[in-house]
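Chapter summary example: a protein plus arginine.
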Amino acid sequence: MKDYKSIIASKIDAPLEKEEIVSLISETADDNFGDYAFPCFKLAKVMRMSPAAIAQQLASQIKTDDVIVKAEAVNGYLNFFINRREFINDAVYGVLSQGADYGNDTLGSGKTVCIDYSSVNICKSFHIGHLSTTAIGSSLYKIFTALGYDVVGINHLGDYGTQFGKMIVAYKLWGDYETVKRNGVAELQRLYVKFHQEEVNHPELTDQAREWFVKVEQNDAEAKKLFDMFKEITLNDVMEIYDRLNVKFDSWNGESFYMDKMDGPLQMLRDKGLITESQGAQVVDLKDYDMPPFLLIKSDGSSLYATRDLAAAVWRKNEYDFDKCLYVVAYQQNLHFKQLFKVLELANLPWAKDMIHVAYGMVSLEDGAMSTRKGNVVLLRDVINKAVSKSLETIIAKNPNLENKEKVAEQVGVGAVLFSALENSKIKDITFTFDRVLNFDGETAPYIQYTTARCNSILEKAGMSRLAKIAPDMRALDNAETLTLCKLLASFPQAVKDAADKYEPSIISGLLIDIAQAFNRFYIAHRVLSDNLSEQNARLSVVEATGITLKKGLALLGIESPDKM
Ligand code: ARG
């Protein structure tokens, strides 16, 4: 694709650096006013003329050619018209020639990005609160991979802490293997809740839990066996969901992995004079940065979540030599990561600047906020199952003859759930509503999937006539709907880069909605299948390019595209 902004900038004879001119040029919102616009307001001061007069003067000096065909002054703007037929041709064949690689880049080659996401807690159920970290992290994984980075997906398991002492006591008193095996994490949760209820009247349980936790720490055989069993049960449970969501990890090193890796980093902080004692605890004082102290060792000598994160950061840098290390974690942990990153910076570690907290908002269900404390957790599995069964109902109603209805319903239901976490700027709190995310005509994954399938079915219907290889008549594409659609298709590679730069998959999801809507307007306005095969082939190339782009975009969001719907 031509770099139109640079081409235009080279034609503008204004007293500004070329780069600045390029940065001022923007795409027009309305095709009637050209394709690109250069505002002359900034020049008014330098040139001591009104923006309107400047635009007039510059317009008269522009040399048009077969790339930039017209320049026009309108209200202080200099508007440019490009050769649209050539642009559409470039846009469409740009997509077709790259196929499934469209949007890929090599800009990340030789660079490594670590992404810490999903990071579930052992013995805790996988609930809707984990949807965003899982969906956003997995999408960023795919986006960075498409841009040529080496990506390391890390599930920093919450597999360490005093709660495991409590779990062991509860299991030994009230649990049995058969039930745990059968009911999985739900049973572990039940035991944990029971422990807390019983603890109120039986304080000796607290002491037993503490003793068992010490045994876990000391790698006592029985404690370890039970702990490993809890871990296995939990991972079996989440694995089933990860498989359905097509989410993968390269590392499962969680908190317990760092138990014997904390001393080095702690000593490093001590050597740099960063650690002070405060009421028997060891902290990094962050008063000067308006933050509470970063607590690293409690007065009883035990480590914390923060200590393990400190060790994990150092270990990851040594192991992967990352260019960036992302943490896809809810904004509730803003302070924790600000403190952690500040401590690394104070320790003069040059890579402290490469640590990024990718924060996101809360998900709640339409029928009330979800809260673990009150016990009304909404399991992610239940949400997915409901989305899939509702999709199946819609599919049966819309297309009763479709083959593989169950498989398509799974792709649609799962896609809808993932998309709900990827459609808005990630920091926004969202309310999940089944009817909205599953609406085939709304701004949803099913709508994009449906449009993608429509592209396929048009191509399929054209069938043999496409093989006739009749030269396309590109004049069939001289219209506003095709232009709008092709501009969106051409902007896809930049959207992928922007999504990576801003850690924001919603840049891609938003563009896919725009493309699907523009495609459907194009499709309504222009007959694709016709007796005029050269016109038909020109339009089919647009259909094919659209299908490829939508499918690729969905794949970067972790969403599958059924061939038929
Ligand atoms: N398990 C933690 C939680 O559920 C999230 C861990 C995020 N990753 C990290 N390195 N702190 O809150």
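Key point: The first helix runs from residue 4 to 9.
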